[in-house]
Amino acid sequence: MNIVIVGMGEVGRHISGVLVGENHNVVIVDLNEQALSAAEETIDAMVLKGHGANLDTLREANAGTADLFVAVSDNSEANMLAAIRAKKLGATKTIARVSDPAYFESHRGIVAGMMGIDLVINPQALIALEMHKIVRSINAVAVEDFADNRIEMIQLPVEDVTLAINRPLRDVKLPSNTLIAALIRNHELLVPGGDDAILPGDEILAVGRIDQIPQVEKLFKRERRKFTKRVVIVGGSLVGKNLAAALAEDGIEVLLIDKDRDRCVELSHQLQDVVILHGDGTDVHLLEEERMDHIDAFVAVSGEDEVNLMASLLAKDLGADRVVAMVHKPDYGPIIERLGIDSFLSPRLEVAKQVLKYVRAGEVVGITPILEGQGEFLEFIAPTDARIVGKPLKDVDFPKGANICAVVSQRGALVPSGEYVIEPGDRVVVFTIPKNRRAVEKAFQKPRFGIL
Predict the structure, then answer these.
(1) How far apart are CA 299 and CA 311, in angstroms?
(2) Cβ within 8 Å of residue 236, ≥6 positions away
(3) Do the beta carbons of residue 27 and residue 48 sit within 8 Å?
(4) DSSP per-residue letters across 160-192
(5) 129-219 has which CATH code?
């Protein structure tokens, strides 16, 4: 696939590195010589100095023949103009990162078809939606939805208080229409077989029909409460505002803390059902007064990583049950895990994840990386005559290190058994390690010249 990427910030560098690693032909465009030099040292891609929205630059980058054009600089207007012009030149698909909320009528985070751009991504709205998922499933490390929110993946830590550990997976009675797609052990991802056992300290990736996932949480003693009652948010950023509004709509009591008095006054008019408190989220006395040990979740989403980390650590130390931090620098990830913060999200990585989902091959309609790319969930629409179609799954030569997790069809959403027969048009969710993706894709591709 021929791909042009405009903007060599952290989002652009991450996307470029992943796509080059997957053997795509990538052209990188940026005005900053230092950013281009750094990219050239680590990424095997063509680099081009120039303004990404300039027509001459776009022509020189061959944007008109690109299968995918991605504009992810820090300038919303430049990204939109670049994507619009690339589309007019002939680019097959275009994506623009747009941070200014003035361009959006909703808080969905992703909009298709805006001004002729195939996909427009709002990082602030996107991160708020992802944090809302985590707060909703309060015991999870991460939550992902597939197949139009009919299938859910939840990442759960495992302790030694459940009967599901220290026994072969084939002997673990999971709720119907669920399965364990993978284990995380010592930060390494494992795709288990029936003889493998879950050990204390592992994390599981459980996949299933969305109404059955709470039963998995119950099995692993991580049962979600009937109601998340109280959440404290530090930071009146757009992320904080959107998250507070979403939680308030769920009937949750929300306290939002911000140290900017004018911003607090503004938010108090915009968020009628949210308590706004002028104060410093890193003030231990303030947090003590707000009884961190009596809240269900603490979320730090200020614009400063250091503030978010400090506030999260203080809240955790004061007894907060669940702590989530927004961190702009993805390199902080390993440190955050060691500090004991339950979950963290990076707007830049979330944008990158959405872009990578859109890089489709064959009949793939979605790609969701897990654990910084160690594993990934693929969504397929099964085509007529593909090898996966028309026979029991147990008779399909499916690659090891990959699991068919769920199927959504006219018959409903389910986790298939070995006797299940996939039909053309079924939507199929597969978990795999990246090196097996091509083999998995091959099972879903239409035959060429009658042969696969």
Answers:
(1) 9
(2) 256, 258, 260, 263, 264, 267, 276
(3) yes
(4) TTSTTSSSBGGGS-PPTTEEEEEEEETTEEE--
(5) 3.30.70.1450
Where are the chain's structural domains?
2-121, 129-219, 230-349, 352-444
Query: Residue 414 corresponds to which tokens in the numbers above?
Result: 């389910």
Q: Is the domain 352-444 a CATH 3.40.50.450 member?
A: no
Residues 6 or more apart whose CB falls under 8 angstroms from that of 174 comprise 180, 206, 216, 219
Do the first three CATH levels of 230-349 and 352-444 match, i.e. the same topology? no
- Report which of 432, 429, 413, 440 is spatially closest to residue 380, judged by C-alpha positions: 429
CATH architecture assigned to 230-349: 3-Layer(aba) Sandwich (3.40)
* pLDDT at 450 (0 to 100): 46
d(CA 276, CA 274): 6
Is residue 414 within 8 Å of residue 209, measured between CB atoms?
A: yes
Amino acid letter for position 247: L
Show Cβ contacts of residue 153 under 8 Å, excluding neighbours closer than 6 positions: 142, 143, 144, 145, 146, 181, 205, 206, 207, 370, 377, 405
In whole angstroms, give the CA distance from residue 223 to residue 217.
5
Q: What's the token pair of residue 339? A: 């500090």
- Domain 2-121 sits in CATH 3.40.50.720: yes
Kindly give, in sequence order, each residue whose CB lies less than 8 Å from that of residue 14, ignoring residues fewer than 6 positions away. Answer: 330, 348, 349, 352
- Tens digit of pLDDT for each residue in 393-438? 988 888 888 889 999 888 888 899 889 999 988 889 999 888 888 8
- Label residue 385 left, alpha or beta by phi (over 0 means left) and psi (-120 to 50 means alpha): left
Q: Is the pLDDT of residue 452 over 60?
A: no
Residues in a beta bridge with 145: 152
Sign of dihedral through CA atoms 19, 22, 27, 31? positive
Question: Token digits for 92?
Answer: 């097959």
The answer to whether the CB of 254 falls within 8 A of the CB of 233 is yes
CA atoms of 429 and 418, how far apart (whole Å): 15
Confidence (pLDDT) at 359: 66
Of the candidate ranges 141-155, 261-275, 299-313, 370-384, the one whose mean pLDDT is the lowest: 141-155
